[in-house]
Design goal:
Elements (H helix, E strand, L loop, with lengths): L1 H41 L2 E6 L5 H11 L4 E7 L4 E6 L6 H10 L11 H5 L12
Antiparallel strand pairs: 1-3, 2-3
The protein binds copper (II) ion (CU).
C-alpha cells in the first residue's frame, strides 16, 4: 500500500513537473519573441529636426519630402516647427532627409533651401526666413 502511494506521488510529481517545465518553456519562447521585437525597434531611430513652414500645406509637403526610403514615420508640427522622423539608420540619415526637405523649399536645421525652391512655394507657405 505504501509503495502504491509513493508511485502515485511520483506520477503526480512527474505530471506537474513536466507541466511546469512546458510552461517555463513557453515563457522563454515568449520572452525571445519579445526580445526580437525590441531588437527590431532598436534598429530604427527617431530624431527631431527644426523645419521652417507655416500651414497644413507645408506640413503635407514637408512630411512627403521627408518620407524617403528608410523613413517609416514623419510628423511635422506647425506650431513648434519640429519634425519628428523615425528612420532606419542603415538606409538613410538626417542629412539626407534635411536635403530632401530643403529641395521642396523648406529651410531646416540641416540644410537651407535654395532661393529658387523657396520662391516656388505658394504665397501662404512663404514662411519668414532667417537671413
Ligand atoms: Cu504652407
Amino acid at each position: 500500500m505504501k509503495t502504491v502511494k509513493i508511485s502515485i506521488v511520483a506520477v503526480l510529481a512527474l505530471v506537474f513537473g513536466s507541466n511546469s517545465y512546458a510552461q517555463m518553456h513557453d515563457h522563454s519562447k515568449m520572452d525571445m519573441s519579445k526580445t526580437g521585437a525590441k531588437m527590431e525597434m532598436a534598429s530604427t531611430k527617431t530624431e527631431t529636426l527644426n523645419v521652417s513652414g507655416n500651414c497644413d500645406m507645408c506640413k503635407a509637403r514637408i512630411e512627403k519630402a521627408a518620407k524617403i526610403d528608410g523613413v517609416s514615420r514623419a510628423d511635422w508640427d506647425a506650431k513648434s516647427k519640429v519634425l519628428s522622423v523615425t528612420y532606419d539608420p542603415a538606409k538613410t540619415n538626417m542629412d539626407l532627409i534635411g536635403k530632401k526637405i530643403a529641395a521642396v523649399g523648406h529651410d531646416n536645421g540641416k540644410v537651407k533651401a535654395s532661393d529658387k525652391a523657396y520662391a516656388a512655394l505658394p504665397g501662404c507657405c512663404k514662411y519668414d526666413r532667417k537671413k
